[in-house]
């Protein structure tokens, strides 16, 4: 029997592109309405799956075979495997750092040093410095960010504002660090030099960060810390009673920072950090471990079993204070599985949208109205934000618009760094503000706050894209290609 030949591919229409987007928006809206803060624990994933099916049906209608669509989804998921490995190991790291006393020590000293009046600004600045040093917003949020949220609890300050400050600082530092993956990816996509790209980003990034810091300073001076000195003293006593507190407990953090600065890849660096945390727990938290283990199989076996459990199921402690129990418990790889599910379904949807040309439909429509340089850059930022929403991954939000707009920027005599900066201003910065985006899902899993809640306070992430658009329309720092001199 003669095998069936593939049907000719029919170009997608604008109406085709609207169908899966409409399905996604309606279902995500329904998920948030029906399930609230729990929407990322399953409902959003189902919404993304049904939107993926809708996009796949459009693809089948236009001549794509199921085999090609399935391969596209597999390749889309493959793109996330590195991030998933990091995500799982971050879960282990949080668990061992809670057990080792690293996070409790950071909270303890934070309560002693940081004043409520400048806490939000300090949190933003600290995260910015750390992220710039190690090139990772994810690692910064999972370590310093988690500890700062604990300090905010102790001071009685707003968790959502603190999360916004953490996100602002983490993404500022990540964006300007030559060690960051996205900072290297954006110029690579458009053919720009890395350090010229970073230098060009300073013009939009630094003013945005300064404005954000000013807002956080103002909010700090006007914030009312609900915890009295007595509550802070109570928290420090609880920490001292349940953990050995000391500067030596910060060694796992120092080890991780050194490995990151030495440019060790994230997965092995975080893995080593988690293992060092486990070793530190055995060395310095013997009383805590002894209170948690089952000695029926012997003390040594009990130690080993508890450490093993911490890697996959996290750590929990009973201090007699419910709020402190919640603060000092968590982590584990198992706690990251829901986020992993969300990332996989989001990338499946993004991969189908790109494969079937449905994303390209929106870009072509945008270019029809982007006549001036200002409108072109504004359209690029809007496309990056839209791709973050639709494709749900910051790497796709950099690569896809970068490929689509590269020729147009060149035709208009704009240097590649204009596009690479715009990709970061629109793509990198907005990714943690979307709950079903890989970055938003990750931040929710480590900070335990819905992106919809902290997004209003991630001032740097909100200001940067708008400032970039203002620069574009005013012609500020828009570099053009110099014409070649004739011989």
UniProtKB/TrEMBL annotation:
Keywords: Antiport, Cell membrane, Membrane, Transmembrane, Transmembrane helix, Transport
A Pfam family of this chain: Na_H_antiporter
GO cellular component: plasma membrane
Keyword Membrane: yes
Spans through the membrane: 12-34, 46-64, 76-98, 118-139, 146-172, 201-221, 242-261, 267-284, 333-353, 454-474
Domain Na+/H+ antiporter NhaC-like C-terminal: 169-476
Lipid bilayer topology: Multi-pass membrane protein
An MF annotation (GO) of this entry: antiporter activity
InterPro entries: Na/H_antiport_NhaC (IPR004770), Na/H_Antiport_NhaC-like_C (IPR018461), NhaC_Na-H+_Antiporter (IPR052180)
Localization: Cell membrane
Domain of life: Bacteria
PANTHER family membership: MALATE-2H(+)/NA(+)-LACTATE ANTIPORTER, MALATE-2H(+)_NA(+)-LACTATE ANTIPORTER
Similarity-based family: Belongs to the NhaC Na(+)/H(+) (TC 2.A.35) antiporter family.
The protein, known as: Na(+)/H(+) antiporter NhaC
The species this protein was found in: Pseudoalteromonas carrageenovora IAM 12662
């Amino acid at each position: 029997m003669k095998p069936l030949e593939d049907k000719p591919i029919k170009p997608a229409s604008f109406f085709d592109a609207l169908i899966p987007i409409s399905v996604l928006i309606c279902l995500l809206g329904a998920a948030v309405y029906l399930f609230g803060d729990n929407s990322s624990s399953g409902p959003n994933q189902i919404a993304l799956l049904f939107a993926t099916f809708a996009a796949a049906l459009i693809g089948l209608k236009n001549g794509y075979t199921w085999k090609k669509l399935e391969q596209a989804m597999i390749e889309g998921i493959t793109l996330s495997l590195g991030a998933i490995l990091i995500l799982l190991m971050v879960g282990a790291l949080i668990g061992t750092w809670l057990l080792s006393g690293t996070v409790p020590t950071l909270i303890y000293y934070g309560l002693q040093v940081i004043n409520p009046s400048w806490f939000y600004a300090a949190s933003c600045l600290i995260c910015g410095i750390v992220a710039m040093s190690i090139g990772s917003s994810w690692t910064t949020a999972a370590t310093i960010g988690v500890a700062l949220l604990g300090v905010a609890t102790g001071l009685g300050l707003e968790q959502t504002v603190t999360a916004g400050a953490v996100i602002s600082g983490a993404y500022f530092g990540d964006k300007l660090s030559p060690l960051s993956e996205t900072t290297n990816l954006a110029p690579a996509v458009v053919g720009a030099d890395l350090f010229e790209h970073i230098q060009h980003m300073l013009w939009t990034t630094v003013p945005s960060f300064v404005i954000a810091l000013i807002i956080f300073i103002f909010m700090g001076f006007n914030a009312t810390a609900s915890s009295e000195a007595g509550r802070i003293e109570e928290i420090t006593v609880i920490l001292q009673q349940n953990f050995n507190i000391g500067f030596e407990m910060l060694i796992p953090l120092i080890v991780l920072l050194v490995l990151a600065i030495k440019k060790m890849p994230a997965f092995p660096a975080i893995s080593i950090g988690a293992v060092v945390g486990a070793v530190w727990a055995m060395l310095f938290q013997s009383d805590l471990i002894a209170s948690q283990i089952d000695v029926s199989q012997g003390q040594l076996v009990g130690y080993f079993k508890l450490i093993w459990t911490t890697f996959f199921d996290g750590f929990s402690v009973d201090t007699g204070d419910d709020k402190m129990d919640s603060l000092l418990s968590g982590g584990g790889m198992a706690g990251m599985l829901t986020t992993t599910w969300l990332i996989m379904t989001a990338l499946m949807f993004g991969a189908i949208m790109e494969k079937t040309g449905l994303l390209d439909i929106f870009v072509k429509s945008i270019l029809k109205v982007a006549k001036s340089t200002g409108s072109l850059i504004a359209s690029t930022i809007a496309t990056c934000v839209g791709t973050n929403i639709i494709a749900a991954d910051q790497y796709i939000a950099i690569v896809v618009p970068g490929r689509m707009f590269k020729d147009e920027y060149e035709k208009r005599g704009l240097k590649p760094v204009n596009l690479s900066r715009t990709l970061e201003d629109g793509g990198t910065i907005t990714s943690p503000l979307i709950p079903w985006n890989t970055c938003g899902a990750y931040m929710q899993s480590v900070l335990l706050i819905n992106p919809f809640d902290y997004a209003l306070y991630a001032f740097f992430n909100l200001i940067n894209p708008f400032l970039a658009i203002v620069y574009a329309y005013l012609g500020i720092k828009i570099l053009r290609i110099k014409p070649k001199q004739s011989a």
